[in-house]
Specification:
Layout: H1 4-32, H2 35-50, H3 70-86, H4 99-122, H5 129-165, H6 175-178, H7 221-259
Length: about 260
């Protein structure tokens, strides 16, 4: 029993902080989705939670659609761009490199960097001059492509900063509160394979922007799953606080009984 009070105090402090953190995270995520999706996804979760032994009810935490591939992602970007052009909306800042082309080129560069890394690592201690020359040529070619890509990239990123700077005059004052400086840790998928664990995981702010769930239903699969998980985390931390409070109450009651 020694140290029980201190242990429970640490646990309740951690649980209260976790509850506040994940409650705020879920509320922010919830405001980013449409009311229709909120109602539909909440209904799915409640039906599933109320019938834990009914295997005929689909699990809202599992994907309904197949995983998107790089090829399908490229196609989707191109189709979205085509639709905007049909509506007379041209977001291109370069005569030959549109936003979708820039993204696709970035993906290609990442793949080429991986291939170069593998080629370098495969060189033995006794690599020939021909092999070394090939690596140098690959590096030079990749560096040239990256420099070209970056010159196009700077055309688009300052545009985002310009929107933030002029948000007030555009009547979008809340943009400054939603758009944040993009750090390396922010760039991660909705379903992160390197997550530290569901209980303490946080969804990156890039997935909490308005309209994140305005794509086709298949594309919304990941958003729906993460919304459900975010809700589950918030509820789990609230439950943890209640359980700890009950445990503390029972400990005090036991001590009072023992003292009597």
């Amino acid at each position: 029993m020694v140290g029980l009070g201190a242990s429970l105090l640490l646990k309740i402090k951690d649980a209260l902080a976790g509850r506040a953190e994940h409650k705020m995270a879920f509320e922010e995520f919830d405001t980013a989705i449409t009311p229709d999706h909120h109602s539909a996804w909440l209904a799915e979760m409640e039906v599933w939670e109320d019938n834990p032994n009914n295997m005929t009810i689909p699990n809202p935490l599992k994907a309904k659609a197949t995983s998107i591939t790089q090829a399908s992602a490229r196609l989707k970007l191109a189709e979205l761009e085509a639709k905007e052009l049909q509506r007379g909306i041209d977001t291109s800042l370069h005569p030959e490199i549109s936003p979708s082309v820039l993204i696709a080129a970035g993906i290609d560069l990442e793949e080429e960097q991986c291939r170069l890394t593998i080629a370098v690592e495969s060189l033995g201690l006794h690599a020939t001059d021909t092999q070394k020359s090939s690596i140098v040529q690959m590096r030079n070619s990749l560096r040239h492509k990256i420099d070209t890509w970056r010159r196009a990239q700077v055309l688009y990123l300052p545009a985002v900063q310009s929107i933030i700077n002029h948000a007030a005059s555009l009547g979008k004052k809340d943009w400054q509160g939603r758009l944040q400086e993009l750090a390396d840790d922010d760039i991660k998928p909705l379903v992160d394979p390197f997550t530290i664990g569901e209980g303490r995981r946080q969804v990156s702010w890039i997935w909490m922007m308005d309209g994140v769930d305005c794509s086709d239903e298949g594309d919304n699969d990941g958003v729906r799953i993460e919304w459900c998980k975010s809700r589950a985390r918030a509820l789990r931390w609230s439950e943890e606080v209640e359980l700890l409070r009950e445990e503390m109450r029972r400990v005090l009651q036991f001590f009072a009984w023992q003292a009597a």
